[in-house]
Design brief:
The chain contains twelve helices and 14 strands. The strands form three sheets. An eight-stranded mixed beta sheet has the order 7-6-5-8-11-10-13-12, with helices on both faces. Strands 1-4-3-2 form a four-stranded mixed beta sheet. Strands 9-14 form a two-stranded antiparallel ribbon. It is globular and about 50 Å long.
Length: 355
């Protein structure tokens, strides 16, 4: 299962600042009670349990875990890359870990901000999970609590969020994610990615852009917009004006598609790929494999074929809604296994120990 790392792990809260390279490097022996060594930490596995602990090994004291709420608008430097977890989960699965690691490696000079609703606030203990420990070893990764009420404050989504908490809806978590990403980019600007992406290339040259999923629909799994961009403002207004939480995708891909058509005064996406400063990128940029063919990620492929397939791709969307729970060998020639090995090698080494 691509999403089942051990869930009881202490974590070091970061790597030594000033280190020029990504600090985490795992290795393991076959002994069930042996230590699994990192370049900056050590992970010990108990012989009869899946409990483990990560201890930072540098000589100076490890930084303390002191989560802070997102800074107010205007205080974040340009170039932030955002991931969101709108459920209360705090144990990232391996694909989530790979998404963040690949983004951190592709953008070593940019903050990679992971906002998680389940993370505790100030002065609270950090959850004991392998995923948080591993991601904490990347100096440009920041793990922050996600306060949805604060995020939606002073936006068109504030009243909607207050009302939606008082009723049941079938797709509330994905709808919350749809709302959060557009509010986040409107308030702060930057790049948003779903947690089932694997980043292959630097994304910072992409501005005021989103990806085309098919000839009929756009997708918001990747978004890159400047702060306070009017397109994001229109998305928030449309979100409320045409709200329907009972139709899958209505507040996500369908919203972005209808707003872009209004933005460009077109009836079909084929009429325009860019207008008024907003660009839609072709499917191969982020969705080289359509969701209908998601099983291809678990099929063997040669390295040469892989290079050809992803030649024009910035990041690969794995369609986790379809693929979650699918098993594969971390050491196989499956397309997904090769992506993990190449673009998130630290996560990949952890996978080989637990899958």
């Amino acid at each position: 299962d691509v999403g089942a790392p051990p869930t009881a792990c202490w974590g070091c809260s970061g790597a030594p600042r000033g280190s020029g390279s990504v600090p985490c490097s795992l290795s393991a022996s076959s002994s069930p009670s042996s230590s699994l060594s990192w370049s900056t930490g050590m992970l010990w596995e108990s012989p009869g349990a899946k409990e483990c602990s990560l201890t930072c090994l540098w000589t100076s004291p490890a930084p303390t875990w002191s989560p802070q709420p997102p800074p107010p608008p205007g205080t974040l430097p340009p170039g932030n890359i955002f991931f969101l977890e709108t459920s209360d989960r705090t144990n990232p699965n391996f694909l989530f870990m790979c998404s963040v690691e690949s983004a951190a490696r592709a953008h070593p000079e940019s903050p990679v901000v992971v906002l998680m609703k389940g993370l505790p606030g100030r002065n609270a203990s950090r959850p004991r999970h392998l995923g948080l420990s591993l991601l904490g070893c990347f100096p440009n990764v920041q793990m922050r609590p996600l306060d949805l009420e604060e995020l939606f404050r002073e936006t068109p989504l504030a009243a909607w969020y207050a009302a939606v908490q008082r009723r049941w809806e079938p797709y509330l978590l994905p709808v919350l994610s749809d709302a959060s990403r557009i509010a986040l980019l409107w308030k702060f600007g930057g790049i948003y990615l779903d947690t089932d992406f694997i980043v292959l290339k630097d994304l910072r040259n992409l501005t005021n852009a989103l990806g085309t999923q098919s000839r009929y629909v756009l997708n918001g799994a990747f978004l890159a917009f400047e702060r306070h961009h009017e397109f994001m403002a229109q998305c928030m207004r449309d979100f409320v004006a045409h709200y329907n939480g009972w139709i899958w995708g209505h507040q996500g891909p369908q919203l972005l598609t209808r707003v872009f058509k209004k933005w460009c005064s077109i009836r079909s996406l084929s009429e325009s790929r860019a207008c008024r400063g907003v660009t839609t990128l072709p499917p191969e940029a982020f969705y080289p494999i359509p969701w209908q063919n998601w099983k291809k990620y678990f099929e063997d492929i040669s390295p040469q074929e892989l290079t050809r397939l992803l030649n024009a791709t910035f990041a690969v969307h794995v369609w986790n809604k379809k693929s979650q729970g699918t098993h594969f060998e971390a050491t196989s020639r499956a397309l997904l296994a090769q992506l993990h090995a190449r673009y998130c090698p630290t996560t990949h080494k952890a996978m080989k120990m637990y899958l």
